[in-house]
Amino acid sequence: MSNPALAPTPVQRLLSLDVLRGITIAFMIMVNNNGGPGSWHFMNHAQWNGLTPTDLVFPTFVFVVGVSVVFAFDARLTRGADRGQLARHTVQRAVILVLFGIIVNNFPLFGLPHMRFYGVLQRIAVCYLVVGLFYLYDQRVWTKVAALVAALVGYWILVRWVPIPGVGVPGRDVPFMDMTQNLVSWIDRHVFPYHLYLEPPYHNVRDPEGLLSDLPAIGTALIGILAGLWLRSRRSVPAKAWGLAGAAVVSLALGYLWSLEFPLNKNMWTSSFVLVAAGYSLALFAFTYWAIEQRGWRTGWTWPWLVFGSNAIAAYMFSELLPSALWSIKFHAGGHPSDPISWTFLHSFEHIPSRGWAAFAYSVTFTAVCFVPVWILYRKKIFLKI
Q1: Are 221 and 64 spatial neighbours (Cβ–Cβ below 8 Å)?
Q2: Neighbours of 119 (CB within 10 A)
Q3: Which residues, at least 6 apart from 368, have a Cβ–Cβ distance to it below 8 Å?
Q4: How far is CA 203 from the centre of its chain?
């Protein structure tokens, strides 16, 4: 008699993955709207080398994209979709994500001379396109492992050993991983001059979602693919939960060890950062999988994360477009120029004595505001599909 615990995993939505996606997008909205100067350290990105919880949000979302590819593609193939149809839809979805990203980056001005073409949604699109097509035509585990190793080791070799034109060899002629003089920034300045991320004092010098650093970001998505393949295997639910936890420990150990040579750096998406960030993503996923799929804790605490996770792209776009729209509304209050966000902060959160708590209260409130339209969509069973 067969053991039902070892039967193939049916192709269905994984509630624990939806919860993980929801937690990630909610925290992403919070840290992207952290209340500005005075906000707590963990609500801000590391300035260069190093790691804060905020630095883990984006790679976790890319990791979730990889896991989702396995379940979404398997479900559609099971329903009879052919690979050519899926490939066309994958390309189409990636293109739409890129266009959405350009809108988010440049709304409401869209000034072509300095329009930013890189961005968060653009990086997600690249990762989704590459790993999606890869998985569609090759579902073997070993090829994903080989591609992951090639991406991470290859990126390290490029950044560490390839001379920067006009500058020299990193670690000899210029400090290794210098903030502005590195191969990643050099490529971006030549591919999209005057169209990079504008942040003083590095105007048009580098971009945190640049071209070359897409390579290790694809590695992040590949780790998600591997996690998805593990969860689709013929193993029991407890074994799968333990496997995710074990993979988290291994990934963290390898990442922190590699960081002694190749520092953790979210801006450059270093190979060590990929492994450490994936380790934390796997750990959180192991918890949600254990709690929901194994222990059956499916009600109550999961609801807000399911609402956010069900329309993650819509939630992200709303959270990015709303501040830009509000900041563009200018008026005078008390004889001084202002805008709706500044005015609201001044007349409410500014009265909280602690600047850190004031910024955090703003961040939570803004995230709650973003929750409302997503909740309305959820109640009406409207889900943004690309």
Answers
A1: no
A2: 23
A3: none
A4: 23
Question: pTM of the full predicted structure?
Answer: 0.91
Q: Could you tell me which residues come within 8 angstroms of residue 175 by beta carbon, excluding any fewer than 6 positions away?
A: 181
362, amino acid identity = Y
Q: How far apart are CA 86 and CA 75, in angstroms?
A: 11
How high is the pLDDT of residue 199? 57
Domain residue spans in the chain? Answer: 4-379
Query: What tokens were used for 35?
Result: 């209340």
316, containing H or E segment? helix 312-327
Do 59 and 277 touch, CB atoms closer than 8 A? yes
What three-state secondary structure class fits 170? Answer: strand
Find out whether 276 and 251 touch, Cβ atoms under 8 Å.
Answer: yes
In this structure, the chain runs to a length of 386
Give pLDDT tens digits for 268-286: 999 999 999 999 999 999 9
CA–CA gap between residue 322 and residue 205 (Å, rounded): 27
Count helices and strands in the chain by DSSP H and E runs: 13, 2
Backbone angles phi, psi at 384, to 5 degrees: -65, 115
Q: Tell me which residue has tokens 């333990």.
A: 242
Tell me which residue has tokens 């050519």: 84
What whole-number distance in Å separates Cα of residue 90 and Cα of residue 84? 10
With bands split at pLDDT 50, 70 and 90, how would you rate the model's confidence at 12?
low
